[in-house]
Amino acid sequence: LWKHKIVSKIPKESIRILDQACGTGILTFKIAHKYPEAWVTGVDITDEYLEIAKSKAKRIGVSNVELILGKAEDIILHGAIDCITSSYLAKYADLGVLVANARTMLREGGRLIIHDFTYPANKAFARVWEFYFKILQAIGRQFYQEWKTVFYELPGLIRETRWIDQLITTLKAERFANITVEYFTLGTSAIVSAEKA
Q: Residues in the chain with pLDDT < 50?
């Protein structure tokens, strides 16, 4: 659902799209499928994820995607970009650098779309959320040992991060316009979008 919402916010006329922190390419390939005339660049810091994405690209026959190994804050593409997306990056990233680079890369009117987890504001649902992660910590680690660190560190990180406030402040400082925030799934995630003025 969240990935579909991100894709739906991409300007229809986009021909160059950058997907930051693309991981194994789930969002990247959704974008490439929806916009077959566009050139989609996926960037991720984890080589293992990119290898999975490259295998997927071959298997499903995607030809309008380029995958680059690197830190999102360090990669600056040349030539005007129509849209930059990211999912699950904001809580880890240096938002000042990320937004400044987005301003450099985007064409006038280009759109920045950032999605990540948020801590539920509703106290009753927050208790359900906390319980859900306790289940993941107790059961998930038995089946997915490689995700053990995520199960234990992610809840605290989501509780502590104030990425939306920081992002909005940074977007305003970089003179982005039409800034919107949309919450999903009872406040457990949000999408912030803005346009280069």
A: none
Task: Provide the 10 A C-beta neighbour count for residue 86.
Answer: 23
SS (H, E, C) 157-191: HHHHCCHHHHHHHHHHHCCEEEEEEEEECCCCEEE
pLDDT at position 68, please? 98
CA atoms within 13 A on the CB side of 111: 22
Convert the pLDDT of each residue in 12-54 to its tens digit: 999 999 999 999 999 999 999 999 999 999 999 999 999 999 9
| pLDDT at 148 (0 to 100) | 65
The answer to whether 98 touches 76, Cβ cutoff 8 Å, is no
Under 8 Å between Cβ of 182 and 190: yes
CA distance 112 to 15: 14
d(CA 54, CA 52): 5
pTM score: 0.90
Instruction: Give the integer Cα–Cα distance in Å for 86 and 189.
Output: 13
